[in-house]
Design a protein that fits this description.
The protein is α/β, with parallel strands linked by helices and about 475 residues long. The chain folds into four domains: about 180 residues, P-loop containing nucleotide triphosphate hydrolases (Rossmann fold, 3-Layer(aba) Sandwich); about 70 residues, Helicase, Ruva Protein, domain 3 (Orthogonal Bundle), CATH 1.10.8; about 90 residues, Up-down Bundle (Zinc Finger, Delta Prime, domain 3), CATH 1.20.272.10; about 100 residues, no CATH class. Helices cover about 45% and strands about 5% of the residues. Helix 7 links the parallel strand 2 and strand 3. Helix 14 crosses helix 15, helix 16 runs parallel beside helix 18 and helix 18 runs antiparallel to helix 19.
């Protein structure tokens, strides 16, 4: 006689042999194409190989029919609802879906009580799926804990936001966290081809032209649900044997075809124009190219990386707040994802485009690198060397070091650069924006430090030598 684990493994690999009410609805003619094409078992799931591969935690849960508490984190259309539905099917659990957008504690408790009653009366287990669980407040999430702790339900929560920030710690500690990735173009091609040929989908009634497929992939942006929704809209009204070309697709989704090759000339030309528009302070042109890249399906992380670079390269010290703002926008891309993260990217672009400009940062590091590469460097002056270890004093390390905090303004006339680089001026500030303040301070400080080619400021060379603290205190080493 087969054990419960054996039966669970068989169902996980082959899929349930009988359709429940949810499956009947999913295969009905009136259901959206994305719903009709939901996988029936884990082998049909496309685009998340790390989660569905043999031996993966998710597959083990299904194969062994084990109680589960899982958090699925990923962008829209990557299969969170699909995985929850598949797990309910292959384990023959009742599938109860609640949206955190509209539900409250009362609905959660009602669903849990119904699940408890069903478990007690018939032995039927329930899989409670809560979409956008991050929208529940702390009290609503806490209401789930007894059901998860006592295994009255198998719980799966889906979130598009980082659960470390949006899900309460007790629920996190009781759940397996699985991250989903946007579907690759190759995975989306499989999804689209299956939907066109499968009887649950379009049944081969139409074909998809190559140019339309490429445009559909760009519009989808790694979102399988969006790809199938647009495909269904384009196929609507076409006669049997009809062809979906780029024109048909454009009319169906009411979005112009964006001519953009993410691996070709457009990719490089548009990002070049985007950068130059920011550098040239044309905020409107910069926003246009940002919108073009987003609509064409460009990786938003690539856009964010370029914004970070140019916050220092083109704005720099003229507005030191540009870099932290650019980094914050990049973090928003990771935490929020598209489409909402386009707002964060736009804020960073507007800030950078309108900020005063300075290339002094990139010029400064470039000049310093040139000196190092050409050999204009040398040993670290002895008074600056590490004096924290035993016998360092015997070697003369740290001898004569003057502790700046013991002097007015925290500055003391003392040599810091290697002798070969003494007096080199790498940082040449502009008078643009906030950098004027840094220019004034740099000028005052340089006047207080030893000049070019001078040995002044070396230990023992001036009246101040030996007046500072010797390296005995850890804070002054």
């Amino acid at each position: 006689m087969a054990s419960a684990g054996d039966r669970g493994r068989q169902r996980a690999l082959q899929g349930a042999s009988l359709f429940d009410d949810a499956a009947d609805e999913a295969t009905s003619a009136i259901a959206p194409l994305a719903v009709r094409m939901r996988p029936r078992n884990l082998d049909e799931v496309v685009g998340q190989p790390k989660l569905t591969a043999p031996g993966s935690p998710l597959r083990k849960l299904a194969e062994h029919d084990a109680p589960m508490s899982v958090l699925l984190w990923g962008p829209p259309g990557t299969g969170k609802t699909t995985l929850a539905y598949v797990l309910s099917r292959v384990t023959r659990r009742r599938f109860v879906e609640i949206s955190a957008v509209s539900a409250g504690v009362a609905q959660v408790r009602a669903a849990v009580e119904t699940a408890r009653a069903e478990l007690g009366h018939t032995g039927q287990q329930t899989l409670l799926f809560i979409d956008e669980v991050h929208r529940f407040n702390k009290g609503q999430q806490d209401a789930l804990l007894p059901a998860v702790e006592n295994r009255w339900v198998s719980f799966i929560g889906a979130t598009t936001e980082n659960p470390s920030f949006s899900v309460v710690a007790p629920l996190m500690s009781r759940s397996l966290l699985l991250a989903l990735q946007p579907l690759s173009d190759s995975a989306l091609r499989i999804v689209i081809a299956t939907a066109i040929s499968d009887e649950r989908g379009l049944g081969g009634a139409v074909t998809l032209a190559e140019d339309a497929q490429e445009q559909l992939l760009r519009l989808a942006g790694g979102d399988a649900r969006r790809a199938l929704t647009y495909l269904e809209a384009a196929a609507l009204g076409l006669p049997a044997g009809g062809v979906i070309d780029a024109g048909v697709l454009e009319r169906a989704v009411d979005r112009a075809a964006v001519r953009y090759d993410r691996a070709g000339d457009q990719h490089y030309d548009v990002i070049s124009a985007f950068i130059k528009a920011i550098r040239g302070s044309d905020v409107d042109a910069a926003l246009h190219y940002l919108a073009l890249m987003i609509e064409a399906g460009e990786d938003p992380r690539f856009i964010a990386r370029r914004i970070i670079v140019h916050a220092s390269e083109d704005v720099g010290m003229a507005d030191p707040t540009a870099l932290p703002l650019a980094i914050a926008a990049a973090q928003a891309v990771e935490f929020v994802g598209l489409p909402e993260a386009r707002i964060n990217l736009a804020q960073a672009v507007i800030h950078l485009a309108l900020a005063p400009k300075s290339t002094s940062v990139v010029t400064a590091i470039g000049a310093a690198v040139d000196d190092v590469r050409s050999g204009r460097t040398g040993p670290v002056p002895a008074h600056l060397r590490d004096a924290s270890y035993r016998d360092a004093g015997r070697l003369g390390h740290g001898a004569g070091y003057l502790y700046p905090h013991d002097y007015p303004e925290g500055i003391v006339r003392q040599a810091y650069a290697p002798q070969a680089a003494a007096g080199r001026r790498y940082y040449q500030p502009t008078r643009h924006g906030a950098e004027a303040r840094y220019a004034d301070r740099a000028e005052r400080i340089r006047a207080m430090l030893p000049g070019p080619g001078s040995e002044e400021g070396q230990p023992g060379s001036g009246a101040e030598a030996g007046q500072g603290e010797q390296p005995g205190s850890p804070a002054k080493r």
